[in-house]
Protein: H/ACA ribonucleoprotein complex subunit 2
Organism: Carpinus fangiana
Amino acid sequence: MGSDSEAEKAQQKEKEIKKLLAIAPIAKPLAGKKLCKRTLKLVRRAAEHKCLKRGVKEVVKSIRRGHKGVCVIAGNISPIDVITHVPILCEEAEIPYVYVPSKEDLANAGATKRPTCCVLVLTKPAKGELGPEEGEKLKADYKQVAADVSELALSLF
């Protein structure tokens, strides 16, 4: 029984190493384990409240229309040319962005089955309003992640 858990741990470590090897060289600022977990939790909560734009096309359209939020980009996209323009758009619009290691994890957090290149977590839903309690929770998570992302970006430069 002990050897099974050791074998599972070894397989899990192998998967993590493969994920890290698949990350593109331009994927900076890359979220650490703690920030990645917190960011994916924010994405999950935003998906529940319909405050999420999924995919490159929707994200670019929202940024150009002036919507604000946090952009989360997958680091293991191939070919990387698909998303190279997104960080530039985010910087021009003063939107914080962060890379996470896996597009599959990003899709799971965003409540889709297809792997997702990038998502934009909006500060308010596209249609309707949030309840006061839910809105406060989402805003608190959003502010915490946005602050952590900004801090991570500043540490790189």
User: Anything to note?
Assistant: The two ends are 48 Å apart (CA to CA). The mean pLDDT is 86.
